[in-house]
C-alpha cells in the first residue's frame, strides 16, 4: 500500500509539472485525491483527454492566425475555419455575418455540406436591432439553440429562423465576434439535426472567440486595404491619363503624342519596320470661329478629334498638336497603308454636319504624311519626320486643301 501511494504521488506531481506548463488557462489541470489506484488511473485518462483537447484548441487558433499572417484573404481564412472546426463539433453549414455600414447583420460568407434548398444566401441582411442576438455582444457569450422549431414557436417574427427552418436547419450554435470592444459579427454553425451542440462546445469556442474575432477583423481589414489600394491605383492611373489628355478634345496633348512618336522611332530602329505620321489641319478653321463663335469652334474640334480616333486602329495614336492641328502616329505602317487610313479619315470628316445660327455647315481637312521609309540613308529622328509631314501638309493646302499628300517624291497622290 505504501508503494502504491508513493507511485500515485509521484505521478500526480509529474502530471501537474508537465500538463500545467501551457499558456491556456483552460489547460490547467486539477488532480483530485483518490482512494485507489484504479480511480487514479481513470482520472489520468480523463486528464490526458482534456490536455489533448487543449492542445488541439491551441493548434486551431495558431493555424488560423498563421493563415492570416501569410496574407490569406477573408474567404480563405473562413474556409480554413470551416474545415478545421469540423473535428470539434458536427455541422453542415457555417455562416459568417458581419455588421455593415447600415448597422445590419449581413451574410458575408457561408458554406454548406448540401446544395439543395439553400435559403440564407450571401447578401441576406437583417437590422441588428431586429435580431435577438445583439445582446450576446455585451457578454461575448455564444448561444446554443438545439431545437429551432421550438425557438420559432416562441419567436414567430424571426425571419432568419423561419428561413433556416425552411432550409432544413434544426439547431444553431451562434458565436459572437468581438475585436476589443468592437462588435464584428457572428459565426454561426448549423446542423440539420436537433441537439447537436453542447455546453462543452460552448466552453471551447468561448475561449477561441477573442482570437478568431481578431483574425476575422484583421482579414477583413486586409481585404479593405487591398480594395483601397486597387482603387488608389486606378485613381492614379486615371489622373496620369488625364494629365496626358487635352481637356477640350479628349485626345493626347502635344507632349504625350510626341512621346508616342519617339517610341515609334525607337521601335522602328529595333525591328526595321516602317511607320508613318500624319499631320492633319482643319481647313479655314479661323473662319468657323469668326462666323459661328468659339463655342461652335470647340465643338468642331471635339467632333473632328472623335472622328479621327474612330478611324484609327487600336495600336495607333492621335494627339492635338496645336490649335486646329492634329498629329497621328501609325505604328508598323508603310506610306501606302497610311494613305488609305488618311483618306478614310478625310472622307469621314467631310461628311460631318454642324449647325449654328440656323445654318448647317461642313468642314474639310488637309493631311500630310511622312514615312520612316524616307530615312533610308540617314537615321530617322523626330524633327526630320515632323518637318517632312509639315511640308506635305503645306503642299496639300497649296493644292486646294481637302486632300492627302505623302512626302514621297514618286508617290504624289490626290484624292478621288
Automatic annotation (TrEMBL):
Q: Which cofactor does it need?
A: Mg(2+)
Q: Which CDD domains match?
A: GGDEF
Q: Which reaction does it catalyse?
A: 2 GTP = 3',3'-c-di-GMP + 2 diphosphate
- Annotated EC: 2.7.7.65
EC class (word) = transferase
PROSITE patterns from the UniProt entry: GGDEF
* GO molecular function term, any single one: diguanylate cyclase activity
Instruction: Identify the domain of life.
Output: Bacteria
Q: Which residues form the GGDEF domain?
A: 273-409
Pfam families, per database record: GAF_2, GGDEF
Q: Which PANTHER family match?
A: DIGUANYLATE CYCLASE DGCM-RELATED, REGULATORY COMPONENTS OF SENSORY TRANSDUCTION SYSTEM
NCBIfam families according to UniProt: GGDEF
What is the protein's given name? diguanylate cyclase
Upper classification of the source organism reads: Bacteria, Pseudomonadati, Pseudomonadota, Gammaproteobacteria, Vibrionales
Amino acid at each position: 500500500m505504501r508503494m502504491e501511494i508513493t507511485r500515485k504521488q509521484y505521478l500526480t506531481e509529474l502530471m501537474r509539472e508537465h500538463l500545467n506548463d501551457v499558456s491556456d488557462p483552460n489547460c490547467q489541470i486539477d488532480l483530485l485525491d483518490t482512494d485507489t489506484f484504479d480511480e487514479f488511473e481513470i482520472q489520468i485518462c480523463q486528464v490526458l483527454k482534456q490536455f489533448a483537447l487543449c492542445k488541439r484548441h491551441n493548434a486551431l487558433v495558431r493555424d488560423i492566425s498563421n493563415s492570416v499572417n501569410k496574407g490569406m484573404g477573408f474567404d480563405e481564412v473562413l474556409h480554413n475555419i470551416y474545415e478545421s472546426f469540423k473535428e470539434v463539433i458536427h455541422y453542415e453549414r457555417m455562416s459568417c455575418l458581419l455588421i455593415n455600414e447600415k448597422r445590419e447583420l449581413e451574410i458575408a460568407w457561408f458554406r454548406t455540406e448540401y446544395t439543395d434548398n439553400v435559403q440564407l444566401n450571401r447578401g441576406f441582411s437583417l437590422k441588428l436591432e431586429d435580431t435577438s442576438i445583439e445582446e450576446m455582444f455585451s457578454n461575448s457569450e455564444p448561444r446554443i439553440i438545439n431545437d429551432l422549431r421550438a425557438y420559432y414557436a416562441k419567436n414567430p417574427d424571426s425571419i432568419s429562423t423561419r428561413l433556416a427552418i425552411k432550409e432544413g436547419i434544426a439547431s444553431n450554435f451562434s458565436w459572437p465576434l468581438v475585436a476589443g470592444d468592437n462588435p464584428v459579427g457572428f459565426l454561426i454553425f448549423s446542423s440539420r439535426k436537433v441537439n447537436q451542440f453542447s455546453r462543452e462546445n460552448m466552453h471551447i469556442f468561448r475561449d477561441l472567440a477573442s482570437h478568431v474575432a481578431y483574425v476575422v477583423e484583421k482579414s477583413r481589414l486586409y481585404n479593405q486595404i487591398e480594395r483601397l489600394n486597387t482603387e488608389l491605383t486606378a485613381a492614379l492611373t486615371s489622373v496620369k491619363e488625364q494629365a496626358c489628355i487635352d481637356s477640350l478634345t479628349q485626345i493626347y496633348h502635344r507632349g504625350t503624342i510626341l512621346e508616342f512618336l519617339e517610341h515609334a522611332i525607337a521601335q522602328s530602329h529595333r525591328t526595321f519596320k516602317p511607320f508613318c505620321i500624319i499631320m492633319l489641319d482643319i481647313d479655314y478653321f479661323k473662319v468657323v470661329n469668326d462666323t459661328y463663335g468659339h463655342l461652335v469652334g470647340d465643338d468642331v474640334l471635339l467632333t473632328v478629334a472623335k472622328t479621327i480616333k474612330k478611324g484609327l486602329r487600336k495600336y495607333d495614336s492621335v494627339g492635338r498638336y496645336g490649335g486646329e492641328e492634329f498629329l497621328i502616329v501609325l505604328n508598323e505602317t508603310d506610306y501606302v497603308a497610311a494613305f488609305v487610313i488618311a483618306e478614310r479619315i478625310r472622307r469621314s470628316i467631310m461628311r460631318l454636319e454642324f449647325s449654328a445660327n440656323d445654318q448647317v455647315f461642313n468642314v474639310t481637312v488637309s493631311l500630310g504624311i511622312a514615312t520612316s521609309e524616307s530615312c533610308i540613308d540617314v537615321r530617322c529622328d523626330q524633327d526630320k519626320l515632323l518637318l517632312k509631314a509639315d511640308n506635305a501638309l503645306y503642299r496639300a493646302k497649296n493644292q486646294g486643301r481637302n486632300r492627302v499628300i505623302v512626302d514621297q517624291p514618286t508617290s504624289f497622290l490626290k484624292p478621288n
